[in-house]
Amino acid sequence: MEKRHQLSGVNLFFLWFGAAVSVAEILAGGFLADLGLVRGLWAIVLGHAVGVALLVLAGLIGFNEKLPAIMSTRISFGRQGSYLISAINILQLIGWTAIMIVEGGVAMNAIAKALWQFNHPAAMMIGIGVLIGLWVFWDVEGFRYINTIAAVFLLGLTVVMSFVLLTRPDIAAATASRSPGLFGMGFELAVIMPLSWVPLISDYTSLAPSRRAAVAGPLIGYFIGSCWMYAIGLVGAIYAGTSDPTGVMLAANLGLAALAILVLSTVTTTFLDVFSAGVSLLNIFPRLSRRWVAVLFTVLGTGLALVFPIDRYTDFLYVLGSVFSPLVAVLLCDYFLLKRDNRERRADLAATISLLVGIGFYYLIKPFPIPVGPTLTTIAFTALLHLSVRTVFRRV
User: If you average pLDDT over each of 170-179, 218-227, 318-327, which comes out highest?
Assistant: First the structure.
């Protein structure tokens, strides 16, 4: 691999830190407000410790095999079996693109309205879509430098926002007034977010120059960034009384700094979604242009953002948990435990059975108040199931 196509450990750190700094993560952290400050922070840290560990293991496969994320699923599901995973991943990435654009656009509109009486949320969404489309043309060579600069700027603005929120004297009083929530729910929402990146992390770790860079970059960058965003959402929701990050930023009187955070964070994070959606489609149709496919997905995501019901955001997160928790269990078991490699096969029945049963198991246990949430429980169940299914198929 030529050096100019590599992403260093520093590049990967800032890439994944920038991916974590987003309105969606602040919003998710705000949903944990009913846990209170202390229990909410514990749920954030423990949930991310588990989720990011699994994310990094998935990225390590891409580094070892020098494969993009979706191509690495051929290790378990075979060549044509990975096409189904590609289709699922494209759908979830278009969904994420829409969520990021609508959240960023609505938040930017609220701040612009407060500052300049500008009230055109659809125009804001379209503007974000245009910026993302332009960003796509920089490809790996561009975001290696520009994303690092943007992430450094985001880091500074995030420090300012955190300082303003944490120095408000009425946060502690607001925290005390909260009724206790279910810890498992908070842990679940913290685990799901890192897992949602599993189908695309190897698109970037496969470009790392060393194992240390492939592991340390996303591990440190995403863990710090995502925990930080969740904590801002948690504290802001307790103080401002809403999980809407716009309310948090307006309550903190951040003004133009908040607008800058929203623009940069939305573009840097959503770029990863459309870029990897293009890679997923290339797994099925390798002759297409990745750059133009990514532009197409940007247009589709922007159009969906104009009609997306954002109140269904948590439902979307749970759908991701139901699919990607058994998926990561199957892939990690096959690669690290069973040393399985199905890349030369068309499909694999055992992996497909384990995935489908795991999805069904997730919805079966989801209504119950499990202390660690349904995602981690499903991962453990699917791993044991898959080991058993592989044993049975081997004997047969």
Answer: 218-227
